[in-house]
Predict the structure.
Amino acid sequence: SRRYTLTGSDRQPYPSATKGELGGHRAGRIYGRLDCPSALRAIARGGYVANRVFFADEETARAAGFRPCAVCLPDRYAAWRRAE
């Protein structure tokens, strides 16, 4: 069985048997969809990968102090901005 490494609400990695629903950038503290066009462009340019993290769900990403991506999650990003 395949093992994945996800990030918990404490920002620490842990092994998981299931793939994360969301990807994130550790340095920027941003999370978004795994198919986010902005993240995929950064990865294609050779960046981003060293800081890439994965989350089981949005609740965990938010608890870890990450914000929604403005590109792939614009509604959630707008709500986050209003709450700041």
Summary: The beta strands are 4-7, 13-16, 22-25, 30-33, 52-55, 67-68. The first strand starts at residue 4 and ends at 7. The CA atoms of residues 34 and 48 lie 13 Å apart.
